[in-house]
Design brief:
Layout: H1 2-15, H2 30-33, H3 52-63, H4 72-77, H5 81-93, H6 116-122, H7 134-137, H8 156-168, H9 178-183, H10 188-200
InterPro entries: Cyt_c-like_dom (IPR009056), Cyt_c-like_dom_sf (IPR036909), Cytochrome_c4-like (IPR024167), Cytochrome_c_Oxidase_Subunit (IPR050597)
Binding site for heme c 2: 133, 136-137, 179
GO cellular component, one term: periplasmic space
């Protein structure tokens, strides 16, 4: 803990007052998720601005093996209840840019959706019982409440890895197993397409 306190203090000095409120328990997290909370491709997802309740739930999923990751599971296990709360609330407080005028389901005509990723995002594939992503994740994938995280602007490799994790059963714990049910119906090409689509959504 002394090392975490020292690292948190050093970051507060080197990155300015914006991070002065960072709790010591979050110091280890910024090595991958960055002090901005925006992560980086092929390293860690953007978690800035996500609801604290969602982030806390994910840490607990890592603790109880509902989410499997060789890096995140030991990191999560190092946090007690107070650490989960402090870390989640701090990342939730960081700014997150979102689409200024996100499209709702139905805003785009089906004929205009020519790319497979965008088709799945806004239309789904009801012949295969696949709902549109924005039905739950909100217009443009901005996220809804404490249950459905934002997808807009998220790193493509992360989105793809999580859909594959739901397929493989190495991620669970969502409401009614919804994502596992959906992910198992997607082909590998569809997973790549929809991940690339949401990563490309303009958030500035």
């Amino acid at each position: 803990m002394k090392k975490l306190v020292f690292l948190a203090s050093a970051l507060a000095v080197t990155t300015g007052s914006a991070y002065a409120d960072m709790p010591p328990q979050a110091a280890a997290c910024v090595a991958c998720h960055q002090a901005s909370g925006l992560g980086a491709p092929h390293l860690a997802p953007a978690i800035a601005g996500m609801p604290a309740a969602y982030l806390a739930a994910q840490l607990k999923h890592f603790q109880n093996n509902e989410r499997q990751n060789p890096i995140m599971q030991p990191m999560a296990m190092a946090l007690d209840e107070a650490g989960i709360k402090a870390t989640s609330e701090w990342f939730a407080s960081l700014p997150l840019e979102q689409p200024k005028n996100p499209d709702f389901r139905g805003d785009k005509s089906p004929a205009s959706l020519t790319e497979r990723g965008e088709q799945l995002a806004y239309l789904g594939d009801w012949q295969r019982n696949i709902p549109s992503c924005v039905s739950c994740h909100g217009p443009g994938g901005v996220g809804v409440g404490d249950t459905f995280p934002h997808l807009a602007g998220q790193h493509a490799d992360y989105l793809e890895s999580q859909l594959k994790a739901w397929q493989a059963g190495t991620r669970s714990g969502d409401s009614h197993g919804l994502m596992g049910h959906i992910a198992k119906k997607l082909t590998a090409d569809e997973i790549t397409a929809v991940a690339n689509y949401f990563a490309s959504v303009e958030v500035k």
